[in-house]
Amino acid sequence: MMRGNYLNRGGGAAARFGNGGQKPVKFWPTITRLFSYMNRDKWGVIFSLFIAAVSVILSVQAPKILGNATTVIAAGVTSKTGIDYSRVGSILITVGIIYSVSFVFGILQQQIMTRISQRTVYRLRKQFKNKMAKLPISYYDTHSNGDVMSRMINDMDNISSTLNQTLIQVVTSALQFIGVCYFMLTISWVLALVAFITVPLALILVRVIAPMSQRFFSTQQRNLGLLNNQIEENYTAHTVIKTFNHQKTSLEDFNKRNVAFFNAAWKAQFVSTLIFPTMRFLNNFDYLAMAVIGGIRVVSGQVNIGDVQAMLQYTNQFSQPITNMSNLINTIQATVASAERVFAVLDESEMQKPNAKTAIKTDSIIRFEDVAFSYSENQPLMTDVSIDVAVGQMVAIVGPTGAGKTTLINLLERFYETTGGTIRLYGQDTKALSQEELRSNFAMVLQETWLFSGTVRDNLRYGNLEATDEEIYKAAKMAHADEFIKTLPKGYDTTLNEGASNISQGQRQLLTIARAFLVNPEILILDEATSSVDTRTERMIQDAMARLLHGRTSFVVAHRLSTIRDADQILVMNHGNIVEIGTHHSLLNSGGMYADLYNSQFAH
């Protein structure tokens, strides 16, 4: 999501969802769509396929040529003239050249396909990341972070491996199978039929095992996403887990997820690996039959011993492409399941540019006109919210938990779109602006700080990437952050770890205020952030906020009503709507909900 100057980000509880574990419902369309990402490199793919085919054709010819050497040696042993070593040598040199060229071509095509597959997945991953920035907030409300990360990392890795290996292996296995069949038939159709007996058995085996494997691989990927989500959640909230002594419960939940993933994974891997030993058994049976029948035909003089040697080699090669294709089917099934999970995100509805109303002339910087909103169609939250905010005014928003305070702010910055009414900025419908244009007018400092892993300097500059070092120092001093920053090991170049846990809560808050100073926004959104700090730090934060608010239009979500006595407007919200509006004194005198809230905070 493009957050603009969303300087502090509060995390909501994400719902836990999986992909259901069903088998792919659009197998061939998904395959076609996946390979369409390789269109830019199609000539490289074609060239790679060509040299792979040449490599296979050369290697398939080698056993027959090598069998001629055995025949020459056998004939020399039984004849008076002896072994023709020059002919044997030339045959061996020819076979050596064939294998060398096949090896070089195999390395070359692998290098080409590795580059192409990585570029393809790079484009797919980039598209996925861009898509995530265009999805509405509602998508993140209904999809867990762990599952999204699993699609971005694990499923992408599956796709990368398949594009790198599978396409070439499908072609080479098919060519190898056809080539082996052809040369076996040219040597002896009778012995070839002995090898062909196992083909129907192999096809039946693949037909039975492949769908089962596909189902288990899909379930494996779903459980992996759920496991990733739990791990991410547990490590993020490890302090809360320890505070409430829920380590045991957390570990039990993890073990349940881990067992579910284990059961799905071993079933998928076990079923997929059944094909290989079964195919080896069929191949060994084939090899035994070929040796016995071939030996009998050599003794009877019907075939040469070199031809039997070649047939034995071809028997080994004959089962290899079938085994490869069987394993590839499992790989492809797993990859299609992964691709469908990725494409499901890419096919999600993006935030649409809504129809905007005509701009009007107004003295207000912000105006809400009969705004309505609902998270779901059958449960309206806001029904009729109308307010006018003049330039430089301080607007306080108060109310009980769940009253709609955060929703009002989200609508203001268009994290959600209104279902009715209009929100205007300088008289212009905010829907007529791009989200980047709209949010460039705002900065937010929330109670829950957000800092990333990096230096203090980089975290401050996040609000204004063009800010100079002097501007950073000035903003830090105005926010009362410069003093503690200089006490850090490397000052402004001190690296903050994940979550900035190597500095205190109050220090983190001062940094976010300094970052807001650098943005220098027209409109400031504040969520009181002093509830978890000591008295001295609270005064410093309040003083810094007062400096930040001076001369700016501001929306303040207030928890301590004593801090918003001087607000130009106080909006009292309940059940999504504004139930009272006025100044501190007028609302107290009216004796309504605000008076009850205020008096409850100062009751003896």
UniProtKB/TrEMBL annotation:
It is found in: Cell membrane. Pfam families: ABC_membrane (PF00664), ABC_tran (PF00005). Residues 366-600 form the ABC transporter domain. The chain crosses the membrane at residues 43-62, 88-108, 191-210. Keywords: ATP-binding, Cell membrane, Membrane, Nucleotide-binding, Transmembrane, Transmembrane helix, Transport. GO terms for molecular function: ABC-type oligopeptide transporter activity; ATP binding; ATP hydrolysis activity. InterPro entries: AAA+_ATPase, ABC1_TM_dom, ABC1_TM_sf, ABC_transporter-like_ATP-bd, ABC_transporter-like_CS, P-loop_NTPase, Type_1_exporter. PROSITE patterns: ABC_TM1F, ABC_TRANSPORTER_1, ABC_TRANSPORTER_2. It is a multi-pass membrane protein. Its main location: membrane. The keyword Cell division does not apply. One of its GO terms (cellular component) is plasma membrane. Residues 46-334 form the ABC transmembrane type-1 domain. It comes from the Bacteria. PANTHER family: ATP-BINDING CASSETTE SUB-FAMILY B MEMBER 10, MITOCHONDRIAL, ATP-DEPENDENT PERMEASE MDL1, MITOCHONDRIAL. This is ATP-binding cassette subfamily B protein. It comes from Lactovum miscens.
